[in-house]
Amino acid sequence: MELDEITISRAILSAQMNTLIEYMELDVAIVGAGPAGLTCAALVAGKGLRVGIIEKKLSVGGGMWGGGMMFPRIVVQEAARHLLDRFSIQYTPFKEGYYIAKSVEAVSKLTAAACDAGAEFFNLTSVEDVMIKADGRISGLVINWTAVEMAHLHVDPLVMGCRYTVDATGHESVVARLVEKKGGNLAVKGESFMWADRAETNILRHTREVYPGLVVAGMAANAVAGESRMGPVFGGMLLSGEQAAGIVSQNLK
What we know:
Elements: H1 5-22, E1 25-31, H2 35-45, E2 51-55, E3 73-77, H3 81-86, E4 92-95, E5 98-102, H4 103-117, E6 120-123, E7 125-132, E8 138-145, H5 146-151, E9 158-167, H6 174-181, H7 196-206, E10 209-211, E11 214-216, H8 219-225, H9 235-251
Parallel strand pairs: 1-2, 1-9, 2-6, 9-11
Antiparallel strand pairs: 3-5, 4-5, 7-8, 8-9, 10-11
């Protein structure tokens, strides 16, 4: 069969435009497709909620792709091992309480789990503002192509409505900082120095609803709280995504 270039283009455009229209109103918008965001997406979408994952980069996975200093291995501690099992991520014990997994496999299987659960990805898409109306609650995200942001073009954005937003944007804590910048009652303290044990111990305490309709997860949670960073140990990221999913799911019952 001879390939028809116009048909190929129409197939891509029609499929993605229909998806954009269908997902303009979300139950949960997850901003950032790193380990916390992917875990949250897979678990929330698995509850039957409409989930959109907004990722500013071309690829997903956040800091997990690169492992530690581009060595494609990550460490996960005992407390999060059940999530490696849940998502069929292979691992080997290193010493008591520590497990090594392949970063590429971990990202791939978390991504596949989110897709299988029904979450939809919107990559190369940046959040440039939030929509907050009279009730004081985040009810939408103002989005644009990342290329527009990079080129500093004056192109008006569009809005995705959402009942809940999860900021899983890592160190940048993008959504939380937008709320702070626009005068919301939210102070982003910024992440502190490297201290893996402290960061991992406290991350679940920081994974919470910090503003009406906004839950922070992963390093965004630690950055908002002024907590330490932890480097290439990812158990806290997975557990934070799991906890964020639980918060959102419970509130959207």
